[in-house]
Automatic annotation (TrEMBL):
InterPro entries: Aldose_1/G6P_1-epimerase, Gal_mutarotase_sf_dom, GH-type_carb-bd. One of its GO terms (molecular function) is isomerase activity. GO terms for biological process: carbohydrate metabolic process. The lineage of its organism: Bacteria, Bacillati, Actinomycetota, Actinomycetes, Propionibacteriales. This is Aldose 1-epimerase. It holds the Pfam family Aldose_epim. It comes from the Bacteria. It comes from Nocardioides marmotae.
Amino acid sequence: MGDVLSVRLVAGGISAAIDSTRGARLTSLRLHGTELLGGAPHEGPGPSSWFDGSFPMAPYAGNVRDGRFSFEGREHRLPRNNGPHAAHGLVEDAPWEVVRHDARSAELAVALPPEWPFGGEVRQRVVLTEESLEVELRCRNDERPMPATLGFHPWFRRDLGQGPVELEVAPGLRYQPLAPGIPGEPGTDLGQRPWDDVFTALAAPPVLRWPGGPVLTVESSSATWMLYEQLAPALCVEPLTAPPDSLGTPRGHVVAPGADLRLTMRLRWDLPG
């Protein structure tokens, strides 16, 4: 099914759209005609592909400091695309193959490019129902161990027409910044809103409440979250398997040959009235 470029999923009055040519990103999530996904004007040194929809980040999420990391005694370098750092992985704007799809689900896959020295592939499965949208991201390598972190980067519209959204979230710990975009160790100083920070130990999954509109709960298999509130049109609630700059460190992950690193995100909504 490699010639399929765009996939539309429908479940009753709910629809979602996936663009396989732009990193398997979700470009739309509509609840009875109301669009929840948005974007923001491009700013900063990163590419414009970081500023719309909901895209997967693999085989690393967030920044890799100075575009370098060490693993099994060797230093590796990655393409730097965020000032001095490498960020958001290597597949968020790549063409993916649509492996299979039907009216309510789709699976897409992409091989990791030569810039990633370990090989491997990434797969994303999306399932839509009338109550939720669930996305599962998997990264694997059949040949050798490799480090990896995964993430989802959804942009949610702030205003659906009746006032700004309220992000309800109660983190217990914030990874204290060593530098912009580079988290250190977790601590109880939660910083000041609007946030651009990484958190863990949340009391409950994040909830977005739009006045007169839906209530959206963002659930994940992971306990690490990037929360970004600093641009007016949209905000980001990003589940990550580990904080940024974790490749080759004890807080990162090592994927064994033939095994998967997995991350899920479930968007569950309650409709008004």
